[in-house]
Amino acid sequence: MYKLNTLAAAVLATLATTLAAPATAAPDLKIALIAGKTGILETYAKETETGFMMGLEYLTGGKMEINGRKLKVIVKDDQGKPDLGRTLLAEAYGDDKADIAVGTTSSGSAIAMLPVALEYKKILIVEPAVADAITGDKWNRYIFRTARSSMQDALAAASTLKAGSVAFLAQDYAFGKDAVKAGREALAATGSKAQVIHEEYAAQNTTDFTAPAQRIFDALKNKPEPRLLQIVWAGPNPMNKLADMKPERYGIVLSPGGNILPVMKTWKNFAGTQGTIYYYHGFPKNKMNDWLVAEHSKRFKAPPDMFTAGGFAAASAVVTALTKANSGDTEKLITAMEGMDFETPKGKMSFRKEDHQALQPMYHFKIKKDQKNEWDLLELVREIPPGELPLPVRNKR
C-alpha cells in the first residue's frame, strides 16, 4: 500500500509540475528594416525608421506583438550602397531568419536587393525607393511596395499641367532617370498638351548649377508658355540656387516636387508656387494621421514628414499582412497581401494584385503666403485620388 501511494504521489506531482509549467512561447516574428542611415539620404532613412517604429506601436496598441507573437525589428544600414544592401538583405533572411523585410532608401540599392528576395523566397516591402523598375521589369513575386513609384509622382504632377513647355532637372542615377522617363509618359497618359523640351541630369553631389541651369534656360526661353522647370531631386534641393539665377527673366517658372519639411521651409519666397507631393502632415484627415501628427509633435517638437508617413505605411502593411495571414510563412503572406487594403496616415492604400504596387492618393499643393508657424508651409489645392492616376502595369507578369 505504501509503494502504491508513493507511486500515485509521484505521478500526481509530475502532473502538477507539467500543468504549472508555462506553455512554450510562440517564436518572435522577425522584421528586417534596411535603410541608408549614413550618406546623402540619411535624413530620409531616419524618418522612415521613426515612422516604421511609431506605426508598429500604434497598430499593436503598444504591445509590439501580433496574434500573441512578439515583433522583433532588426535595423541595418546599407549606406545607400547597392552591394551592401544586397549583402545585408541576404544576412537578414539567412542569418537573422527574418520573416519579412522592409527597405530601402536608395532606388539603386533597392533594385540590387530584389533578386535576393527571389533567391530566399521571402517578402520584401519596398519603402521608400521609388524607381519604376522596382515594380516594373526588375520585379518578382516577393516584392511589394508601399512607397509611391516615379510614375505615380509623375502622373500627379502631369494632372496639374494642361499645356506649355517643360524641362527637367534630375539626378544622374536610377531615381532621376526613372522620374524623367515617367514624366514624359505621364503627360501623354493624362492627355496634357505640354511638350518636354529638355532633360538635364546632374551628379547627386552637384553644388554649382550654373551650367545646367543655363542650358535649361536656353532650351526653354523661346518655347510656348507656360514654361516650367520641373525639379526632381533627392537630398539637398537646388531650388533656391536656381531661383538666384532669375529664371523669371525668361518667363520660366520653377516647379518643385514635394520634399522634406526642412527643405520646404526654405521656399517661403515662392508663395503661390504649385507642385505635387506624396504627403504633408496637414492634408489627410483621419484618426491615424491625427495620432501621428500629435504624437510626433509631442516627441520631436515637429510634425511628421513625408518619409515618416511612408515608414508608418510600411508598418501598417506588415501588421495587416501578418495578422491576416496569421503566419510568417511567405506563401500565406503573398496570398494575404495581393489585393490587400490597409490603412495609412494618407488613408487607404491597396496592393495591386498584378504588380504589388500600393495604389494611393497624392496631393496638389500651393506654397502658402501667410504661414502661421515654421511648419505651416503648404495649402491643399486638392487630393488626387488613385482612380485619377492611370498607373500602367509594367512587370510582364
From TrEMBL:
Residues 1-25 form the signal peptide. It holds the Pfam family Peripla_BP_6. The keyword Signal applies. Keywords: Signal. Residues 29-371 form the Leucine-binding protein domain. Gene3D superfamilies: 3.40.50.2300. It comes from the Bacteria. The keyword Signal applies. PANTHER family: LEUCINE-SPECIFIC-BINDING PROTEIN (PTHR30483), PERIPLASMIC BINDING PROTEIN OF ABC TRANSPORTER FOR NATURAL AMINO ACIDS (PTHR30483:SF6). Belongs to the leucine-binding protein family. This is ABC transporter substrate-binding protein. The lineage of its organism: Bacteria, Pseudomonadati, Pseudomonadota, Betaproteobacteria, Burkholderiales.
